[in-house]
Amino acid sequence: MTGTIYKGIGGFYYVNTEYDGIFECKARGKFRKDHIIPMIGDKVEIEVKNGKGSITEIYERHTKLIRPAVANIDIVVVVAAAASPDPNTNLIDKMLVNAEINGIEPIVCINKSDLADSSTLVELYRKAGYKAISVSAEEKHGLDELMELIKGKTAAFAGVSGVGKSSILTHIIGSKLETGNISEKISRGKHTTRHVELFPVEGGGYVLDTPGFSSVEAEDVDLHELEMCFPEFRNETGKCRFRGCAHINEPDCAVKDAVESGKISKSRYDTYVELYEFVKGRKQWK
Ligand SMILES: Nc1nc2c(ncn2[C@@H]2O[C@H](COP(=O)(O)OP(=O)(O)O)[C@@H](O)[C@H]2O)c(=O)[nH]1
Ligand SMILES: [Mg+2]
Ligand SMILES: [Zn+2]
To answer: Is residue 176 very low, low, confident or very high in pLDDT (cuts 50, 70, 90)?
Structure first.
């Protein structure tokens, strides 16, 4: 049988199969020997004997996040609030870059549109080339559109505490989840482990909560990869005077010109510069 690992507790993996329900499984010894550890999100082959399940094969992971450790995420929904807490575009940009680096499609979702106008933010990210939508979990507005965008996919919800991730997820999963309870830290003896779980969505797909998704790991980024993480730069980079232009101090830089003319948003460019310096500093330090 083929299924998806949606949860792992104490060496047991919970596998959701499409037609036969859920099985508690152990990983085959061969995985331990080869230092392969099953991940949440893994598509696996399982065998069930006398009610005991074992994972016999792990299929190739098409994406792999380290923090949190989840395989095969198709979409990252970057959630921010129109107000309360006030949106932080720098943080939103970093979450988008993190998704891009990991080869995962990001979507921007501005929640709490009942509290403040979200159109400026939505426009900012649409202009940058992203799918961006405005929702209100409170007023149940825009949620069908969001569900349409993630239908049949595994979608990770990222965003700072309080923006409404749990409220949105509760609606999508269709059962009541305590707000702030999805990815809580659970204490196991001396160790504190972040509990990660995929929640199945009716009609196909999974959702998960990923607090603290914004950290961009400089070691994982190549300086020239960084510009690729800003979709609105891609049309400009070829027009710079210098091949390999970093778009920082070089003359005749098409990216800087586009910022000047308003074609590229200043806030997005500022995040690029910050990340560029960060990655560069780290590289020299090594
Ligand atoms: N006004 C308003 N409040 C919301 C909305 N969505 C969530 N909230 C509230 O914001 C607070 C934080 O929501 P929660 O879902 O726990 O956020 P999380 O920390 O991102 O999971 C709760 O008090 C929610 O009731 C919304 O669309 N509008
Ligand atoms: Mg929450
Ligand atoms: Zn340039």
So the answer is: low
Burial zone of 144 (CB within 10 Å; 0-12 exposed, 13-18 middle, 19+ buried): exposed
Q: Is the pLDDT of residue 190 over 70?
A: no
What pLDDT does residue 44 have? 98
Q: What is the pLDDT of residues 125-163, one digit of tens each?
A: 999 999 999 999 999 999 999 999 999 999 999 999 999
Residue 13: pLDDT above 50? Answer: yes
**Burial grade of 158 (CB within 10 A; 0-12, 13-18, 19 or more):** buried
Residue 179 and residue 280 in one domain:
no
Task: Using most ligand atoms within 8 A of CB, pick from 78, 167, 182 the residue to mutate for ligand 1.
Answer: 167
* Domain-terminating residue out of 41, 58, 75: 58
What is the whole-number distance in angstroms between the Cα of residue 120 and the centre of ligand 1?
A: 20
Provide CB contacts within 8 A for 14, sequence distance 6+: 5, 6, 7, 8, 22, 23, 24, 25
Pocket residues for ligand 1 (CB within 6 Å)?
111-112, 114-115, 136-138, 159, 161-167, 179-180
- In this prediction the pTM is 0.91
List the domain range (segments joined by +) for residue 261. 218-285
Number of domains the chain is built from: 3
Ligand 1 atom with minimal separation from the 84 CA:
10
- Judge if 45 and 172 occupy the same domain: no
Ligand 1 atom 1 nearest Cα:
112
Cβ neighbour number for residue 1 with a 10 Å cutoff: 16
Instruction: Kindly give the number of the ligand 1 atom that is closest to the alpha carbon of 115.
Output: 1
